C-alpha cells in the first residue's frame, strides 16, 4: 500500500484541562475527500491547527507525504503542500481579489514573481473569481468571500486542502456552487478535509466522514455509516446545528446522500 498523504499518529493536545485531541490517529490518502463533523467545541478547528502547524501537539507525530512535520511551523508546512482556510476569513479588505491571492501564492506558497502570478490566476479561475480579480476584497458578498478564501488557500499550491466551515451562512444554491468548486479542486488531485456543520454539503462530496467529540473520533466511515452510528446521533440529538431530521433525510437518500 502506498504511503498516506497525511498521517496523525497518536496525537494528543490539551489546553490545561481541556482535551483538544486525545490520542488521535488518522490518515488521509492523496486525492481523498474526508468530511469532519462534530458539535461546537469538539476540537475540529484545533485538529486543523495540529495538521497545519498552527498548533504543536503535546505528544504524537504528524507526517505529511512520508515526512515527519511535527516540529515544522505553519509556513513550512504550507510550502510542503498543506493549505487551509479559516473559519473567520481575514482577507486584506483594501486590496483587490487578485492581490489577495497573489500574496497567498508568494507568502504562503513561497512562489516567485512569474510562478506566483500564474498560481494566483489559476486559483481565481478554479474558484470562479476571475471576473472579480480587480474588485477590492472588502466589497465582496458572502459567497465571493468564501470563494476568495478558498482561492487564497489554493494559490499556495496545496496537495492537501483543509476547509473550515466554508459553507456556513450560504443559501442552498450557493452551497451547491461551492461544492462544485471543491469537487473541481479535488478532481485536480488535491486531497480535501472539510469541517462542516452543513451536513448535506459534506455528504454531496465526501467519500469518508469522521465525527469528533471531546477530542476523540467517535465515528469513521462512509457518511451514511457515521451518521447512523448511535454515539454520533446521540451527540447531535438536541443540537441546534444538525437536527435529527437532517440526519434522517440524508440517510434516507442512501449511501452518502449522493
Ligand atoms: N488556545 C486555546 N486555549 C484554550 N482553549 C482553547 C484554545 N483553542 C481552543 N480551545 C478550546 O478547545 C476546544 C475545542 O475548540 P475548537 O475550536 O477546536 O472546536 P470546534 O470543534 O472547531 O468548535 P466549533 O464547531 O465551534 O468551531 C473548545 O473548548 C475551545 O474553547
UniProtKB/TrEMBL annotation:
Protein name according to UniProt: ABC transporter ATP-binding protein
Occurrences of domain ABC transporter (ranges): 6-239
Signal peptide residue numbers: none
SUPFAM superfamilies, sorted: P-loop containing nucleoside triphosphate hydrolases
Protein keywords: ATP-binding, Nucleotide-binding, Transport
Molecular function via GO: ATP binding; ATP hydrolysis activity; L-isoleucine transmembrane transporter activity; L-phenylalanine transmembrane transporter activity; L-valine transmembrane transporter activity
Keyword Transport: yes
Organism: Trebonia kvetii
Gene3D superfamilies: P-loop containing nucleotide triphosphate hydrolases
PROSITE patterns noted in UniProt: ABC_TRANSPORTER_2
GO annotation terms (biological process): D-alanine transmembrane transport; L-alanine transport; L-isoleucine import across plasma membrane; L-valine import across plasma membrane
GO CC terms of this entry: plasma membrane
